Amino acid sequence: MTQTIVKQSALFGILVTFLAAMIFGFHPPATRGAYADGANITFVLLFTTFIRTVALSAFSYATGNRLFEDKKNLKITLWSGVFQAAAMGCIIAGCFFLEGPIVIILLFLSTILLIFYMAWKGEARIDLITVIGVAA
Fold first, then answer.
1. Per-residue pLDDT tens digits for 111-122
2. Which of 9, 18, 82, 116 can pair with 136 through a Cys bridge, CB separation 3.0 to 4.6 Å?
């Protein structure tokens, strides 16, 4: 029974990862479309951050989870937000100089290289689930 749940959870994780990868692939073309309509990088970052905040807050509320358990979690979250905003700014800026698919390939290449590095250090095991998840 437990193995079935684990396998179903892994399958669900793979499906959600594929969905996220497909949605993420629309980001560069959507960003270019926003720029063509007159938006700038500040608007795109603020708008996407606002949408993520509303969606994740609604999910947390619906599942009965608190956004922050204590002040330590708030501090970590704020620092994470700073780094995420910097990463999104770099991704969007990359779209100015490269085609969207190239930006996405370069972005995900780092994930593939990271999993190989972690496997080399013995911190991760490369199996079928890992390969499919990273490839997604």
1. 788 888 888 998
2. 18
Nearest of 56, 31, 55, 33 to residue 44 by alpha carbon:
31
E strand or H helix at 6: helix 2-25
Per-residue pLDDT reduced to its tens digit, 86-135: 888 888 788 778 877 787 788 878 778 888 888 899 888 887 777 776 66
Give the burial class of 34: count Cβ atoms within 10 A of its Cβ; 0-12 exposed, 13-18 middle, 19 or more buried: middle
- Residue indicated by tokens 């590095």: 117
Residue type, 116: F
CB 85 within 8 A of CB 45: yes
Taking the C-alpha atoms of residue 22 and residue 14, their distance in angstroms, rounded to an integer, is 12
Going by the DSSP 8-state scheme, the letter that residue 127 receives in this structure is -
pTM over 0.85: no
C-alpha distances (whole Å) from 127 to each of 21, 112, 124, 130 are 20, 13, 9, 5
Q: State the alpha helices, DSSP H only, in 26-125.
A: 27-36, 41-63, 71-97, 100-121
Residue 118 identity (one-letter amino acid):
M
